[in-house]
Design brief:
CATH class: Alpha Beta
Structural class: alpha/beta
Strand content: 5-15%
Order of helices and strands: EEHEHEHHEHEHHEHEH
Distance between the termini: 6 Å
Number of strands: 8
CATH architecture: 3-Layer(aba) Sandwich
Radius of gyration: 17 Å
Number of helices: 9
CATH topology: Arginase, Chain A
Strand order of the largest sheet: 3-8-7-4-5-6
Number of domains: 1
CATH superfamily: Ureohydrolase domain
Helix content: 25-40%
Largest sheet: 6 strands, parallel
């Protein structure tokens, strides 16, 4: 993918955000997802590197790749948060805490219409979770979604590979919310969370995955630059993503 053109998805700069259908900025989000879908339908990529924005931007690219590969897609969701709320369970009503639930087929009808397909719980492996809302924890338990702890990832770079192999799926999408990283060493996340994985553990995990799976999609999301931040580790992560 290195050398492929980057295409920017147009987003609204309107500060007048309204709470509609239980979601802040619902109209803007729906419009942005439609813009992303239009770009994907025009380009028809076989791989996608999504960078920037919040986790809500995953809806179109991930659902597209899932359709393209006929559901033969494992999703490794590396995130401190579950992103599994609905408009009815979310305390904040922010859509970036709901995209995975939407990708699993539970959301407002208009937002679901922006999905090219929906995922099944058995396709998902959550990694690095440590800040779940009670409804999200209940959803994970009820659906049997596989989870890897921070300790699992830190101790064994191959833990994710083993979990994916158990799914019997050949293609892989890796979602990276930078808040999966420990906030003490990586303070560039939009919603930082302590006690996360190290950059070294993340890179070791990614290198192991690249040697064993066909990575067709990867994202790097929820970046919030801070003054004086160390860019070298982040640049290494971006370079890896570009090379899938």
């Amino acid at each position: 993918m290195d050398g492929a053109p980057y295409i920017e998805v147009e987003v609204s700069m309107d500060d007048d955000i309204k709470l509609e259908k239980g979601i802040w900025g619902y109209g803007h989000i729906n419009e942005q997802l439609a813009n992303a879908r239009e770009i994907i339908e025009k380009e028809l990529p076989d791989k996608i590197f999504l960078i920037g924005g919040d986790c809500g931007t995953e809806v179109a690219p991930m659902s597209y790749l899932n359709k393209l590969y006929g559901g033969d897609l494992a999703v490794l969701w590396l995130d401190a948060h579950g992103d599994l709320n609905s408009a009815h369970t979310s305390a904040s009503h922010n859509f970036h805490g709901m995209p995975l639930r939407c990708l699993l087929g539970e959301s407002d009808a208009a937002l679901l219409s922006q999905c090219f397909s929906t995922l099944r719980p058995l396709q998902i492996i959550m990694g690095g979770l440590r800040d779940l809302d009670p409804p999200e924890a209940e959803f994970i338990e009820n659906t049997g979604i596989a989870c890897l702890s921070v300790s699992d990832i830190e101790k064994d770079a191959g833990a994710a590979s083993e979990a994916i192999k158990a799914k019997g799926l050949r293609n892989l999408y890796v979602h990276i919310d930078v808040d999966v990283l420990d906030s003490g060493k990586c303070p560039w996340a939009l919603c930082p969370s302590p006690d996360g994985i190290s950059m070294g553990a993340l890179m070791a995990l990614l290198l192991d995955l690249r040697s064993k799976f066909n990575i067709v999609g990867i994202s790097l999301l929820e970046l919030k630059p801070v003054e004086g931040m160390e860019m070298k580790p982040l640049k290494a992560l971006v370079e890896f993503c570009k090379e899938i």
